[in-house]
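Section 3.1: Structural characterization of target chains.
Under the original work plan, the team committed to producing a structural model for every single-chain target entering the pipeline before any wet-lab resources were allocated. The record below documents one such target. The sequence was received from the expression subgroup and is listed exactly as submitted; it comprises 234 residues.
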Amino acid sequence: MLTLRKAADRGHAVHGWLDSWHSFSFADYYDPRHMGVSALRVLNEDRIAPGAGFPTHPHQDMEILTYVLEGAVEHRDSTGTHGVIRPGEVQRMSAGTGIRHSEMNHSSTELLHLLQIWIQPAERGIAPGYEQRAFPVDERRGRLRLLASPDAAQESVRLHQDVRVYGALLTGDEAVTYSLHDSRIAYVHVARGELTLDGTPLKAGDAASVSGQPLLHLRDGFDAEVLLFDLPKV
């Protein structure tokens, strides 16, 4: 079964410096039909004005991934970590028992475009942690590259949950097939460009949840950048 989530149907908030689209209920946007998929609780597409960002604020018991599409985000947190995340890099922050952090546009002149992804951890009260890794274009071109996993396989960032996140770049004749176990749900989000998922056209911002079918076919890409989440059924 494939359930489509069109980009224009997402929640939308504009706060001057921030233009944000919410795939699931978040902040002032509430839709009981869209509270998340399995452990995936938040998928926000944010555009942040130059020199602006999220000032220091707290989180607890959440796995937070930052995936940058354009520009660079500067991260600081209460563990003393300081980093700059650019396109092709993934940041994982485990909030655990509690952490305070800020996420700011690193540039005073360029727009920052990113995805903020929150995943509910399997266990509460873990120690806060931070990890950042680069995934070059050639590792994602025409194939699904593992970006995050519970066992840090293939040099992916480690998630404290039974979730695997893949990224791919597809255009022209490039195509990928993904095997989905019957006990799992896939959530496919198109970050940029367009492609087809089992013949269903998806454009930037569109997404689809899939269950009950053993193979997923991603093809017909046009400058497509896509994330695939492999999630447990709950």
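The CA atoms of residues 152 and 158 lie 5 Å apart.
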